[in-house]
């Protein structure tokens, strides 16, 4: 099965697929990753999520969905199945955060207690400049690697 993680054009996409593949392969080699897939009635894969885990937590790491899929609730079903999987393994399930009130309400509907995490909401100018410079260096390194390939 291959679902695209490209919700934007390749030019706009910021996923580092080579690194993601290395992480997934390393986790799979340690039996610490699984792909949970949703299929339509015809057996076609319409959505998937990659779950990775360690000794204590399971993480909702990457997800993808066929944008032409008209099945409502497919993401919620995959999320629920992921929670069940973590529970069967005796692990805490980590949704990997959420960025909006509507997402928080959606996740609260699963009946689990949220855990508060510290979040940086403001940054001083030197840190912003560091992030900008670091991003530029990573972009340059990626472009150089693509030229060598």
Automatic annotation (TrEMBL):
Pfam families in alphabetical order: Acetyltransf_6 (PF13480)
InterPro entries, alphabetized: Acyl_CoA_acyltransferase, BioF2-like_GNAT_dom
Keyword Methyltransferase included in the entry's annotation: no
Keywords: Transferase
Keyword field contains Nucleotide-binding: no
Gene Ontology molecular-function annotations: transferase activity
Gene3D superfamilies, sorted: 3.40.630.30
Residue span, BioF2-like acetyltransferase domain: 18-95
Protein name: GNAT family N-acetyltransferase
């Amino acid at each position: 099965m291959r679902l695209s993680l490209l919700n934007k054009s390749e030019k706009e996409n910021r996923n580092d697929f080579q690194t993601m593949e290395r992480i997934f392969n390393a986790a799979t080699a340690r039996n610490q990753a699984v792909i949970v897939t949703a299929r339509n009635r015809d057996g076609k894969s319409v959505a998937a999520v990659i779950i990775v885990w360690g000794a204590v937590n399971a993480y909702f790491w990457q997800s993808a969905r066929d944008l032409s899929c008209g099945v409502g609730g497919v993401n919620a079903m995959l999320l629920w199945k992921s929670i069940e999987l973590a529970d069967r393994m005796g692990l805490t399930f980590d949704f990997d955060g959420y960025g909006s009130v509507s997402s928080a309400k959606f996740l609260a509907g699963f009946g689990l207690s949220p855990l508060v995490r510290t979040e940086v909401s403001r940054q001083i100018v030197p840190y912003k400049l560091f992030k900008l410079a670091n991003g530029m260096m990573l972009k340059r390194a990626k472009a150089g690697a693509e030229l060598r390939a």
